[in-house]
Every structure is written in C-alpha cells, then in structure tokens.
Design a protein that fits this description.
47 strands; 6-stranded antiparallel β-sheet; mainly beta; elongated; 2 helices
C-alpha cells in the first residue's frame, strides 16, 4: 500500500538546500525543494505563472521601465531607451516620446519620482528634469531650482568674493580672488553673505578753483538706517548723489540731495533713510563759497544675503577670476568683499542629485558625486524653492549631511512617517525633534537604525514595511517600525531561500499588489525570483521564474483594469537579446510561455489555479528532502 504525504500548504516557498535537515522548522512542512514558474498564493496554494505577450514597439535595445501612475484607472509604463521613451498601457504599445536627455549609458542609475502628471527624473550626471503630461502631449523640462541649494559656506577667511560693477547687457560683475577653475561655469549659483558693520565717518569736501565743483568723495557699503549731515559754518552748494539697489540699476548715479548755504550763515542740513536690500554708495562734492565743508555720514549696518546665477566667466585662473551674473531676486546692488560665500550644490563638476522623494510637503534630494551623504530639502509646498533666511525660519529649506564614520553614499529614500535613508553602509532615520513636530532647520534629528547597507537600487514600499536589497544584492530585507526597540528594525526575508541569490545578485525589483501580493526580483543571470509576501498571515514564499526567449533585464508593475472579478496587473518585462518588452498577462486566456508541469501533476493541474490541498506522490529516494 502506498503512503501519501498530505501537502496542505506551500506558504514556505522554495527552501534553501541548507535547510534540508531542518525538519523541526514549521517552514519545512510548507516548503518545497523546487518551485519553478509557480506563484505561491497567500492562501497557501500555488498557481502556474502566466506567460507573456509582446505589446509591440519594435525596439530591441536596452530600456529602463518606469511606472507612471496618475491614479488606479490611469497608468502606463514608460520604457526609457536611448534618447526616447516608449509608452505601454493595456498590454499594448502606445507611442514614442522623443527629446529625452537620457541615453543608454544613463539608464542603470536613472531614478524617478512622480507627482500627478509630472515625473521627476534624477541622474548623477544630468541636471534634474521632469517629464510632464499635458493635453498637448509629453514634454521634458529641466527643473529650475530657485535660491539654492548650496554647499556649505566657505570658512577660509583668505578666499573672498564680491559684486561691484553692473552692465545692462552683461549683468552684475562677480569677482573672486582664489582658484575656481574646476567648478565655476555658466549657470552656477553663487550666494554671498556679509555683515556690514555700523560706521560713522566724517568727510571734508573741497571746492574747485574758480567757483567750480571740487572732486567727488565716495562712501561705499552704506547699509541699514543712515543719517547724513553737514557741520559748522560754511557757504556754497553741496551735491549728494546715490548709486543704490533697485530693479533698474542702468540709470547709474542719481541726484539724492542738493544743499545751499548763504555766506556767513550758521546753517546746516541733515537727511535720514534706510537701506535694506544691498549696500548703497553715496558721493559728495562742494562748489564755491567756502573752500571746505565737513560732512558726517553714519549707518547701522546689517546682514546682506544675495544670490546670483552666473551668465559667463570672463577670467578664471589660479589667482582668481571674474564673470557676469544675473540677480536671482531681480534687485541689483553692491555686495562688499566677503569670505562668507557658498556655491550651488548642483553643477557639471560636482554632479547632480541621484534621487528624490516627497516628505512632509518638502522635495528631498540626495547624493551628488561631490556630497554623497547630503540631503537637500526644499521649502514646504514649494518644491523648487531652496531659499533660506537670516535668521533661520521654520519654513526655510534644509541642508543636512549624515554624520558617520564612513563616507557611504545615499542609495535610497523612503517616507514612512519618518524619513528612512538607505546608504551603502547602513540604514538611518530622520525625524523631527519631537513626535508632534515637523522638520525645521533646527529640529531635524538623524540616527542610525542598522548597519546592513543597501544595494544601489530604490527601496520598495510593501504594505506597512519597506523592502531593500542588502549591500551586495544577495539578500532582501524588510524594515519597519518595531515596538521592541521603539524604532526601525530590519529582518532578512530571503534567508530561507538564500540559494536563489547565491552569486546571483538582484538587479531590479517591482511590487505587484493584486491579486497575489508578489514582489518580482530580476536577478543577474536573467531569471526572476518572486516573493509572495503577506506579513499578517505569515506568508513569506519564494519561487523561481525562468522565461524563455532571453534573459530578463528589468521589471515594472502598474495597476490594471478589473476583469472577471480579478484585478489585472500589467507587469512588463524588459528582455535582452532583441526580444524587447513583454507584458506578463495576468487574467489572460491566450498566453504563451506557460511553465512545463511535472508529469505527476499534468493529469489534473487546472489551466488557471486551485487553492485546494495538493497530494504529491513522493518517490522513496526523495523522502529525506522537501517536496519536489
């Protein structure tokens, strides 16, 4: 009489050979030796993985698949190629978008972030662009970030910058006395900060010969509340002109005051005002009457903080340089020599942000080649504004750098109440100073949550946890809030199937929420590992997927239409060897590439799937091992 083992569940998935002797484990009773081209259902049964259908398009080169999800009913897949983007929706090719700034070489490090009809795109070697969908079509636009962001303010007191001259055609004249040859390029943002000290000075004006005006006496850097007055007994005419901040500086020097005193009169004059944009310049001269007159000018001083965007560079060598710039705030004026300057964080030399995410109404950017551990956060609800104030305000932009022993680049970001930061060396949590507060320049706290390290790919939000590939790409970890540690902790969800990733790291991941809650992981050898993950029901089952017709290069999932009481997902698979993009047709009746079933299951395995228990006749010589 034959003996049968009743296999009531496959919720353990395919198990590593290292577990073949672990009969004490609960997963041993629900696991299998091999599960190829099957998907484990959350209820414990298995279904044969559907095949693929070609959606057309005709492109056979490398692509990067990017989901574009406006809503559950409006979504498509964007296949980024060499300078173009192909659109796929409803298992069909929808057309091509041209003008992409991203070529084949950019695709491996391409990241994205969507807000409605706008898709932000990030790459360390390309300025941030966004792809927007309008009634007129699809358009690429370079993002124009205002008022920053900037690298840290200079601390070398010998390195000075200043703004002095102005040309109606050339813009403001920016000068520096040190070597900026490696980074000073057109388009670079420059921020100058200086503190104009309070001052009071007395000038002596001399009249010219023959009753003419004498030479001008000029006072630079007048800032804050000021007072100008004449002193003593004098006669003649005093002219006062001003070169001031303003929206139209092309008028140059303008008449400010004219004072006349009769011969022998004990008569003096004064005027007060306030300069609150830039440092103004005033000049004075005397005509006729007395040979001299005394003028006193006093001002309170204050802080000047101005931003310029370089138009061009006219001189740049080891000793310094100069160039012309536009005023970001549209107001021109003189900025005294200062060592408190900062250069824009994003440029062709230092690189551009590698990724971004929305968190607490801020656009968070991270990781340039120059500053791999730095995050730049925009002002709340003003995603392109990275401005700051003196003194700082709560809604100012924020710049923060991880304080760690090693310089490990930021490789991923996730927003889960707190901001999760994944680097090559560990996991970090950024939160406000207290539970009820939001991020401000003075209340952001970043602490480590683990030291596993992340592979260079985006993390994946799955339900109430976030999945990320560990540093070498040979393990998948799940991180979420833990009451045990009152913080974020991670666990390895691939340890029971580690053989699938042995010398075979993960290249890409995508999450298919319905109908089965499956995480698809593209592996280096062109196969795919599929994880059915239902944390609340203790389902953590891996299977291996082998697709005929070429290795899989990328995977992407978007919401599909409701058909036959089953939510359909369009999971696109980018193939190598000229196959192009294939659609994984869940819910389709006519599909190709169905898996080959074992002979002992072919007789009664349904075309779709069944959730009932499966009885398997195990051969005697295989009894020491899991099923299959």
């Amino acid at each position: 009489m034959k003996l049968y083992d009743a296999k009531v569940s496959f919720a353990g998935g395919e198990l590593s050979p290292l577990l073949y002797g672990r009969v004490d484990m609960a997963q041993y009773q629900t696991g299998a030796k091999t599960l190829q081209n099957f998907i484990v259902l959350p209820q414990g049964g298995v279904i044969n993985r559907p095949g693929t259908t070609s959606p057309g398009g005709g492109y056979s080169g490398k692509v990067r698949l990017v989901p574009f999800v406006f809503s559950e009913e409006d979504s498509c897949v964007l296949a980024f190629g060499d300078g173009f983007v192909d659109r796929y929706a409803g298992s069909a090719y929808q057309g091509r978008i041209t003008g992409s700034p991203y070529g084949t070489a950019h695709l491996p490090k391409l990241r994205w972030l969507q807000s409605g009809d706008v898709l932000y795109l990030f790459h360390p070697d390309v300025p941030v662009h966004y792809l927007s969908r309008t009634s007129g079509g699809w358009t690429f636009t370079q993002a124009d970030f205002k008022n920053g962001p900037f690298e840290e303010t200079n601390t070398d007191e010998n390195k000075k910058m200043w703004v002095y001259s102005y040309s109606a055609t050339g813009g403001a004249g920016v000068y520096w006395n040190f070597d900026l040859r490696s980074v000073m390029v057109p388009g670079l943002l420059v921020r100058l900060e200086t503190e104009v000290k309070a001052n009071s000075m007395e000038l002596t004006l001399h009249s010219g010969s023959g009753g003419t005006f004498g030479d001008w006496e000029t006072v630079d850097n007048v800032f804050g509340a000021f007072t100008i007055k004449t002193n003593g007994s004098w006669n003649g005419t005093v002219e006062v002109e001003r070169l001031r901040s303003g929206e139209d500086p092309t008028t140059g020097w303008e008449s400010f005051k004219t004072w006349r005193s009769l011969s022998g009169a004990e008569e003096n004059f004064s005027v007060s005002g306030d300069v609150d944009e830039y440092a103004d310049q005033y000049r004075f001269r005397l005509q006729g009457g007395s040979s001299t007159v005394s003028i006193t000018i006093s001002f309170e001083g204050g802080a000047i903080n101005r931003i310029f965007k370089m138009r061009n560079v006219t001189r740049n060598d080891a000793s310094g340089g100069s160039g012309n710039a536009d005023n970001v705030d549209g107001v021109w004026g003189h900025v005294p020599e200062t060592d408190a300057w900062a250069l824009g964080a994003f440029n062709s030399t230092w690189g551009y942000p590698s990724m971004g995410i929305f968190h607490q109404e801020r656009l968070v950017l991270a990781n340039t080649k120059h500053s791999p551990q730095t995050l730049w956060m925009s002002q709340p609800a003003s995603w392109h504004n990275f401005g700051s104030s003196i003194p700082a305000k709560d809604d100012d932009a924020i710049t923060v750098t991880l304080a760690s022993k090693e310089i490990n680049e930021i490789r991923g970001l996730a927003s889960r109440g707190d901001l999760l930061i994944f680097t090559a060396g560990g996991e970090w949590t950024a939160k406000a100073g207290s539970k009820s507060d939001v991020f401000t320049p003075s209340s952001i706290v970043i602490t480590p949550s683990g030291y596993r390290g992340s592979a260079d790919m985006p993390p994946l939000d799955v339900g109430d946890v976030t999945l990320f590939a560990q540093r070498q790409g040979t393990a998948v970890r799940s991180i979420g809030y833990s009451l045990d540690v009152d913080g974020y902790a991670s666990q390895d969800v691939s340890v029971l199937a580690e053989h699938l990733f042995r010398n075979n790291p993960i290249k890409a991941m995508a999450y298919q929420q319905t109908p089965w809650s499956v995480v698809w992981c593209v592996l280096a050898d062109g196969t795919v590992a599929a994880l059915t993950l239902q944390k609340e029901h203790q389902v953590n089952a891996w299977t291996r997927q082998v697709f005929s017709g070429g290795a899989v290069e990328d995977v992407c999932a978007i919401p599909g239409a409701e058909q036959a009481l089953q939510a359909e997902i369009e999971a696109l698979l980018a193939r190598l060897q000229g196959i192009g993009c294939d659609a994984l047709g869940f819910g389709c009746q006519a599909v190709r590439d169905y898996p080959t079933l074992p002979a002992w299951l072919q007789s009664d395995w349904p075309q779709r799937y069944r959730q009932a228990s499966i009885r398997v006749d195990v051969q005697a010589q295989a009894r020491q091992q899991p099923i299959f």
